[in-house]
Amino acid sequence: MSRFVVCVTGAMLAIASAAHAQVPNGQLPQRWILAGDSIQAQVFGNAEFNLPGGDARDLTASIIMQDTGVAIQNVSSPGATMTTTVFAGLKDQQAMVSFIDGFFGATGIVITIGVNDSGGTVSANTYRADYSGLVAFALRAGMQVVCVPPLNEPNEVPDVNVSRRFAFQIATVFACMGAGVPAENIFNPAAVGIVPDPADPAKRRLFASSLVNGQLRLDNIHLSSAGHRLFADRLIDFMVARGFWRRR
């Protein structure tokens, strides 16, 4: 079990879940928003295992649509953050969310963002407040909300004073649950094996890599086609188990 899972269990139990929209029964038609950063916006190449990048058919969003029939409106953008810094963050995209929600309503939103926030200068408390505000907005609109904490960094230390990434993972959990998302609607990629580990060939295959002057350079952030496939498969399993989606 991921150390991240162990560390956040107490946080999940400590916060009472607010009322939330009725769970859909998995029947079509469904429309879900997928809001993230470059990890979900592109398929990256993996030079070590000769996995080409760039094919949108290999994106998590594309795989979900093919395997479930659920419509995914992917609004992921390279460099995206939750908190506004130089560019507007996801917290300031409520008009976009409302536009996509539309007349008939989107079923829900999967939020998979935070790596860029953790790599910047914004505080975890500001990130948490901004994240919570967007989640609350989506819930008020009647959407289901599924939160995805930022991916682990290699050899991540489960200590908020040592790892900013870990601090932002914890902040994501508190933000979502504090806004009314039930604990079971938080999808942790680390718990299903999506963790960068330079010492493990199976993990290296999931993430981007390149050859620079004949030397292998590991990315440890962006997903290869194999990484998108695993992410999509495990997210589908997660959503099916909660009655949101059905496999074809």
Summarize this structure briefly.
This protein is of the alpha/beta class. It is built from nine helices and six strands, in the order H-E-H-H-E-H-E-H-H-E-H-H-E-E-H. Strand 5 (207-212) and strand 6 form a beta hairpin.
Word description of this protein:
This protein is an alpha/beta fold. It has a single domain, classed as Rossmann fold (3-Layer(aba) Sandwich). 37% of the residues lie in helices and 14% in strands. The chain contains nine helices and six strands. The protein has a four-stranded parallel β-sheet, with helices on both faces. A hairpin with a 2-residue loop joins strand 5 and strand 6 (215-223). The longest helix has 17 residues, at 124-140. It is globular.
Q: Based on the structure, what is the oligomeric state of the protein chains? A: single chain
CATH C-level = Alpha Beta
Count of distinct strands: 6
The mean pLDDT is 92
Report the biggest beta sheet as strand number plus sense, adding barrel if it closes: 4 strands, parallel
How many separate domains make up the residues?
1
Strand content: 5-15%
Neighbour order of strands in the largest sheet: 2-1-3-4
Q: What is the percent of helical residues? A: 25-40%
Query: How many H/I helical runs?
Result: 9
Q: What would you report as the Rg, rounded to the nearest angstrom?
A: 17 Å
CATH architecture call: 3-Layer(aba) Sandwich
Succession of helices and strands: HEHHEHEHHEHHEEH
CATH superfamily: SGNH hydrolase
Overall geometric form? globular
